Amino acid sequence: MRILFITATRIGDAVLSTGLLDHLLRAHAHAKVVVVCGPAAEGVFARMPNRAWTISLEKRPFRLHWWDLWRQVAGSRWDLVVDLRASGLAWTIRAKRRVVMRGGRRPGHRLAQIGALMGLDPPPLPVAWFAPADARRASALLPGDGPWLALGPTANWDRKVWPADRFVALADALSASGGPLAGARVAVLGGPGAAERAMAAPVLAALGGRALDLVGNLSLPEAAAVLARCALFVGNDSGLMHLSAATGTPTLGLFGPSPADHYAPAGPRAAAAVAPGSPDLDSMPNLTLEAALGAAERLLAAPVPASAA
């Protein structure tokens, strides 16, 4: 069976699509899958089983990227085409079956919208694929038996960023003697590039030698393996937040201007702390330390679902 799976440009949306892709792989164990995604999201699928190859769809003027894609896939006959980009391309190539998402934002969580395409309710949760080599590197970076707390103080937009001093205070409270992660060491994660480095810099500076700096230093499979070793991830609405939830690690997403009802982290142990006034553009500073800490404590204290045990 040959499946063409057209998914997102951004990492977070790509991660949310992995649940449907995993469902298809389980239903069609011998299928060969060609994944189409944006360049930033390629790593999400790098360790995916049954992946024939990945087509990196880099945007071009006048939507010429869709013409480039058509030339690569039109010569094949596909058993199933799944198009989460609402591009219309699925209707121009030979396929036995087509599943195409409608354009425009609709109410409800993105995960539920993706699952509904194939009548899956509840929708399958995202997954995070990484290899033994990624796990070995994560084990070397995060050694020991004690807990690790992962922080994600960056985002693709500065208005989605929680104040740095609150990240530091939250880490102090969680790792303090008597705290839910007493004695925890801290790993700070972020994507590549100067903007991500600048967002993370105040947190790293304040934590000093207590923090492991992993900003821009990991591939996405390596980041997934690192996050899977952590006792808790707390971070802004970002691709890393979604990747963490997909690993099954307890994940707290912090939300201000982006709608949590649409993009809250989806996983067996995931929750969102939402700023009062959200989704107003300037609402992120309204999220207090006390609210985030309370949400983290409740997440850690909640029973572990049987599926995540």
UniProtKB/TrEMBL annotation:
InterPro entries: Glyco_trans_9, LPS_LOS_Heptosyltrfase. Pfam families: Glyco_transf_9. Keywords: Glycosyltransferase, Transferase. The keyword Cell division does not apply. It comes from the Bacteria. This is Glycosyltransferase family 9 protein. The lineage of its organism: Bacteria, Pseudomonadati, Pseudomonadota, Alphaproteobacteria, Acetobacterales.
